[in-house]
Amino acid sequence: MKYLKQLVIILLFSFLGELLQELLPLPVPAAIYGLLLLFLALTFQIVKPESIKTVAGFLLNIMPLLFVAPGVNILSHWGILAPEIVPIITVVLLSTVIVFALSGLVTKALLGKGGMENG
Known about the structure:
InterPro entries: LrgA/CidA. The chain has 119 residues and is mainly α. The protein folds into 2 domains: 1-66, no CATH class; 79-119. The chain is 75% helix and 0% strand. The chain contains 7 helices and no strands. The longest helix has 27 residues, at 85-111. It is extended, with a radius of gyration of 20 Å.
């Protein structure tokens, strides 16, 4: 029963995300709304981390398995994607480098000029 309660809490936030996506005229995925609402509920202690810890841990452990179906679906549409593979790879690599660089700069700014050397 403990696991069912934890799953219901997580699914409730997923449902609220779906509801927000329908109500708000913004191009934001429902999953983002749901995760944001869950984050806020955890931050403001509306939901205690212990109340979802076990099921959340399980979902994190099986996350790679959840990407198998979308990966197979991408491969089944290879004929459509093949002509665009070079631009897709370019954008993915470029955006990854940009995110790494910006993350480093933000971390450096937050830690101060000297970084960890001062601490």
